[in-house]
């Protein structure tokens, strides 16, 4: 009986770690048959520890696949003009397939303007006007889409979780997570809502699915949610013992039908999507 119960619990925890591994393994093989090897450049401004860890991870996984990747580091004081000239140079360089600007940027730099300098074909975060517009308009054909929402959709698909007609609540309105996730869920015929700090009643308890990226450890508690709901945890923070934790209290697993863990959920799926976009640069645009 106990084992049965444990097995059921395991099945409802969506394993982003294993799925990302299998995506990365498939990419390793695919890269060998490409006419040229993709290569990645990451623009990193300042010396934020978290950003250094994330970009280091991206380089490590790219290398595992057989993709060359470099971090280009700039001091906090770098100007818009300096970044612009570096990005325009990279756009013209035939040996560079994908470019990302690690976010957040220091306050004096406008992230929207800077990301829009990247050529749409090399913009593997899907943040330039052309790629954002294509997602919003529901364009057909391949174009780059933001990696965190793409990773979420891939994980849902792999567990055959269908959200058509379901009330989906997004707790995040950023350009890199909340807004593109809204578009992708809408394209799947979900009933999508976005809440933020000015919303008095975010309707958590009546939602069929919750996508949370607020960055408050264990923000969503078991007593706040509907039985059988789907919980997607996009938050990463550290609790008072410095342990990595997400927005969703792990005890919610008792009440949810499906839930993503932190770590091992959406984080690794984000990197897998980034690598897929990078390979697609060569596949579709070379
Ligand atoms: N232009 C840009 N593109 C991004 O994609 C981007 C960004 N800026 N800025 C920061 C966020 C954050 N992000 C993560 C990626 C992977 C994990 C990840 O792999 N997490 C692991 C381990 C966490 C850990 O050990 O620290 C996990 O959740 O299992 C987390 C976070 C990408 N971001």
TrEMBL record:
GO terms for biological process, alphabetical: L-histidine biosynthetic process; methionine biosynthetic process; purine nucleotide biosynthetic process; tetrahydrofolate interconversion
Pathway membership: One-carbon metabolism; tetrahydrofolate interconversion
Top-rank lineage group of the source organism: Bacteria
Molecular-function annotations in GO: methenyltetrahydrofolate cyclohydrolase activity; methylenetetrahydrofolate dehydrogenase (NADP+) activity
Entries under Pfam families matching the protein: THF_DHG_CYH (PF00763), THF_DHG_CYH_C (PF02882)
Binding locations of NADP(+): 172-174, 236
E.C. numbers: 1.5.1.5, 3.5.4.9
One cellular component term from this protein's GO annotations in UniProt: cytosol
CDD domains linked: NAD_bind_m-THF_DH_Cyclohyd
Residues annotated as domain Tetrahydrofolate dehydrogenase/cyclohydrolase NAD(P)-binding: 146-283
Catalysed reaction, written as an equation: (6R)-5,10-methylene-5,6,7,8-tetrahydrofolate + NADP(+) = (6R)-5,10-methenyltetrahydrofolate + NADPH; (6R)-5,10-methenyltetrahydrofolate + H2O = (6R)-10-formyltetrahydrofolate + H(+)
The keyword Amino-acid biosynthesis is assigned to this record: yes
Keyword annotations: Amino-acid biosynthesis, Histidine biosynthesis, Hydrolase, Methionine biosynthesis, Multifunctional enzyme, NADP, One-carbon metabolism, Oxidoreductase, Purine biosynthesis
Alphabetical list of PANTHER family matching this protein: C-1-TETRAHYDROFOLATE SYNTHASE, CYTOPLASMIC, C-1-TETRAHYDROFOLATE SYNTHASE, CYTOPLASMIC-RELATED
Protein function: Catalyzes the oxidation of 5,10-methylenetetrahydrofolate to 5,10-methenyltetrahydrofolate and then the hydrolysis of 5,10-methenyltetrahydrofolate to 10-formyltetrahydrofolate.
Protein name: Bifunctional protein FolD
Lineage, broadest ranks: Bacteria, Pseudomonadati, Pseudomonadota, Alphaproteobacteria, Rickettsiales
Protein encoded by which gene: folD
């Amino acid at each position: 009986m106990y084992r049965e119960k444990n097995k059921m619990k395991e099945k409802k925890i969506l394993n982003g770690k294993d799925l990302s591994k299998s995506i990365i393994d498939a990419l390793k093989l695919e890269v060998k048959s490409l006419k040229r090897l993709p290569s990645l450049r990451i623009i990193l401004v300042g010396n934020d520890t978290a950003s250094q860890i994330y970009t280091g991870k991206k380089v490590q996984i790219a290398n595992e696949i057989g993709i060359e990747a470099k971090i280009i580091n700039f001091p906090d004081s770098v100007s818009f003009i300096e970044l612009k000239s570096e990005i325009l140079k990279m756009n013209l360089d035939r040996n560079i397939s994908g470019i990302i600007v690690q976010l957040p940027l220091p306050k004096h730099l406008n992230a929207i303007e800077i990301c829009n300098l990247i050529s749409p074909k090399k913009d593997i975060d899907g943040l330039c006007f052309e790629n954002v517009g294509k997602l919003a308009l529901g364009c057909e054909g391949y174009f780059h889409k933001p990696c965190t929402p793409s990773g979420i959709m891939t994980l849902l698909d792999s567990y055959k979780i269908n959200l058509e007609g379901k009330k989906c609540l997004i707790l995040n309105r950023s350009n890199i997570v909340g807004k593109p996730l809204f578009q992708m869920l809408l394209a799947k015929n979900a009933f999508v809502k976005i809440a933020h700090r000015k919303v008095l009643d975010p309707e958590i308890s009546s939602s069929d699915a919750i996508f949370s990226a607020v960055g408050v450890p264990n923000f969503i508690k078991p007593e706040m949610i509907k039985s059988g709901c789907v919980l997607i945890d996009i938050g990463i923070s550290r609790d008072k013992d410095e342990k990595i934790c997400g927005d969703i209290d792990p005890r919610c697993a008792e009440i949810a039908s499906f839930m993503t863990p932190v770590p091992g959920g959406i984080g690794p799926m984000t990197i897998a999507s980034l690598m897929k976009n990078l390979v697609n640069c060569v596949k579709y645009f070379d």
